[in-house]
Write a structure and sequence with these properties.
two-stranded antiparallel sheet; 682 residues; mainly alpha; single chain; disordered N terminus; 32 helices
């Protein structure tokens, strides 16, 4: 055996110093992350957080017991304005995390935001370990500067601030774990690391299919930063492809996948002109780079018509093509020497490609969450350029003090505005209303943004209008704002049926009509009714047979005393929507008032057949008997309705009826039910 070289005191001191430095780096990373995102703990639920607290959260709210069902159902389902149920996506891992969270803490936005920050921090720590490994022969400061730039970049605010985007965080976390394990496999040649890496990649897909962005990152990293042979890298790439099939594709073989994309999300869903697809795709890539370079303004949603449909002749498209072709040539030029710039550029290009709108149209056209992974390539290049600016050598573990000092000063100069923007942006995510209002000045061309803000304003107005005191006069300015947003939405795209219906619902609102009539403005009240009819009809021109528009048209004509038109639209609603109950109930009552009692009874019996637990037909029967003077039979019908958890007025009537009859037991039962029904939900 040969003699081992003695370890010098200087080497021991250097090793100890490096360990201390790395420990300090870790502490800085942890503290800095909490400084940047600590204020998110004050935020409420916001945009798209129906995943946690809405109808789609039903399985989540069943806690750990629901995990089996979570893995056999789609990610989310939503009732749309046209009454359809849209179910799509398969992200059982993130729903499982939400279910466990709910079991432990219930609905608590502070806890939810804390968990998002902790997952982001964990992802950052794993990324830092990956960076330390791939740049192990570089300056110790190089991966540290990269990770600080990554942590602070404001484009990450959406994925941290929006609880729904926990799927993006988990997907990248497990993808990075896979990368770390593949590097360990390359270093130690232990199959266990490869097996766990492949399993981790499946978990990344079970969080969100955006894990596909790492598909080429894995072999790219192994080529640049290991001595693994190309044949072996090819085998690993093949195994990863199998994991993609298992984790990303197989669920859709047995799960229903229904998602009807709309024009407001991305007009490219309906575009088959290849030149517009390519042009808009390159425009999108240019826009993404602009956001990375100058992260302002940041917006929660883009959609139609924020990003224009353009062909290859557009000047911004041409500049984007020149830029992206230029950096690709640089990457290819430096590829054989395995230069860090080549790696960073290729990392950026392969991870941003799937969001370019060229291969597949992306929801919203542009989204900051899509930059979570590609931003790593950007900050690697940025850090490298900052080192080179002061003649520091990132590729060398030894650098002169002055060059590193000025590089770090420049890093701080970049981090200050990044940090300010990130912290400020977090505060805007406090609620959906604060977010919508803050971004609206930049989203004047977005149909969806106008519709969302108008809808959110009216939701707040509805809470006030539901109060006993008539406060409509104080709310008219807010109502006018909502109307303006819906009007702007249909100006941008007249085919947006939801905004026409939302406008019509405002014009048709009974409390607003009461306010207008109370102040003597009957002409405006009549004008509002006409506008409601016109807006509902415009919606029907776009979506013939829409239940909401047909029913409300019938209701509007009924309120105006135009009963023939009212009956016609109720009948049309039933024709196009055979299971509709509300239109049958209104039509039944209309027939009874017009003397056709037989038809009224038939329609109510149809409702009972459609839904035996529906209280409406029994309330209607009770009303009919009351109008005919048969109180006893009316009470019998109302009690049938009470068994089906009917409206509070029925409980109130029954409570008073039995009180007058001296039946104190029943009076108390119905009085308690009434109080329970009118008590505000916590």
């Amino acid at each position: 055996m040969g003699k081992q070289k003695a370890i010098s005191g200087n080497q021991i001191t250097s090793t100890a110093k490096n360990k201390t430095t790395r420990l300090i780096f870790l502490l800085v990373i942890i503290i800095y992350t909490f400084i940047l995102y600590g204020n998110t703990l004050n935020n409420r639920y916001s945009l798209d957080d129906y995943i946690i607290k809405g109808k789609s959260a039903q399985l989540v709210k069943e806690g750990i017991a629901s995990i089996g069902d979570i893995f056999t159902t789609t990610y989310t389902s939503r009732s749309t304005s046209d009454g359809l149920e849209k179910s799509y996506g398969y992200r059982p891992l993130v729903r499982t995390v939400f279910a466990i969270e709910y079991s432990l803490f219930g609905l608590n936005p502070r806890i939810s935001h804390l968990i998002n920050v902790l997952i982001y921090l964990l992802m950052v720590l794993v990324l830092y370990q990956v960076l330390r490994r791939i740049f192990r022969n570089y300056s110790i400061w190089f991966p540290f500067v990269i990770i600080l730039l990554f942590i602070a970049h404001p484009v990450h605010t959406e994925v941290v601030d929006s609880l729904k985007n926990r799927d993006e965080l988990l997907s990248m976390l497990f993808s990075l774990l896979s990368l770390q394990l593949l590097l360990k496999y390359a270093d130690k040649n232990k199959v266990i690391f490869l097996v766990i890496a492949l399993l981790s990649y499946i978990l990344a897909f079970l969080a969100k299919p955006t894990a596909l962005a790492f598909w080429f990152v894995f072999p790219l990293t192994l080529y640049f930063f290991t001595n693994m042979k190309l044949k072996k890298i090819g085998i690993i790439f093949g195994l990863l492809s199998i994991m993609i099939v298992i984790g990303g594709m197989m669920p859709f073989w047995f799960l229903e996948k229904v998602r009807n994309f709309s024009m407001v999300e991305n007009p490219l869903y309906f575009e088959d002109n290849i030149w517009y697809i390519l042009g808009t795709g390159m425009y999108s890539l240019g826009y993404y780079f602009k956001i990375l370079l100058i992260p302002h303004p940041l917006l929660y949603y883009y959609g139609y018509n924020m990003i224009p449909l353009v062909n290859l002749g557009n000047i911004w498209v041409i500049l984007s093509i020149v830029f992206h072709l230029g950096i690709l040539l640089i990457a290819l030029w430096k590829f054989r020497e395995k230069h860090v710039i080549s790696y960073a550029i290729l990392f950026y290009l392969v991870t941003i490609a799937m969001f370019s709108n060229i291969v597949q149209a992306a929801p919203g056209i542009i989204a900051e969450r899509f930059l979570l992974i590609p931003s790593l390539g950007f900050v690697i290049v940025l850090a490298w350029l900052m080192f080179k600016l002061f003649k520091a050598k990132p590729e060398s573990p030894v650098n002169k003090g002055a060059s590193i000092f000025f590089t770090l000063i420049l890093t701080v100069v970049v981090l200050v505005p990044y940090s300010y923007k990130t912290i400020h942006r977090n505060a805007l995510w406090y609620s959906d209303l604060t977010l919508y209002r803050a971004d609206m000045k930049y989203l004047d061309n977005s149909v969806k943004a106008h519709d969302l803000l108008g809808t959110r304003i009216m939701r707040k107005v509805e809470l006030e209008l539901s109060k006993q005191v008539n406060v409509a006069q104080f709310l008219m300015p807010e109502i006018e704002k909502a109307l303006n947003h819906f009007q702007r939405a249909v100006e941008i795209w007249p085919g947006h049926a939801a905004s026409w219906k939302n406008m019509a619902m405002i014009y048709n609102h009974p409390r607003i009509a009461e306010h207008l009539i109370a102040k003597g403005d009957t002409s405006t009240a009549v004008l509002y009714k006409r506008k409601a009819i016109s807006s509902f009809r415009r919606a029907l021109e776009i979506e013939a047979g829409d239940a909401k528009a047909l029913f409300n048209l019938g209701l509007t004509y009924e309120n105006m005393g135009i009963f023939d038109s009212s009956a016609y639209f109720y009948e049309q609603c039933i024709y196009f929507n055979p299971d509709d109950i509300d239109s049958r109930s209104r039509l039944a009552n209309l027939n009874f008032m017009r003397g056709d009692e037989k038809e009224a009874i038939r329609l109510n019996i149809e409702i009972i057949r459609l839904d035996p637990q529906e209280a409406l037909p029994y309330v209607n029967f009770g009303n009919y008997f009351m109008m005919k003077g048969d109180t006893l039979k009316a009470v019998e019908s109302y009690e049938e309705a009470a068994l089906r958890n009917t409206r509070p007025q029925v409980f109130s009537f029954l409570g008073q009826y039995f009180l007058d009859k001296g039946d104190m037991e029943k009076a108390k039962i119905y009085r308690d039910k009434y109080l329970e029904a009118v008590q505000p939900r916590q």
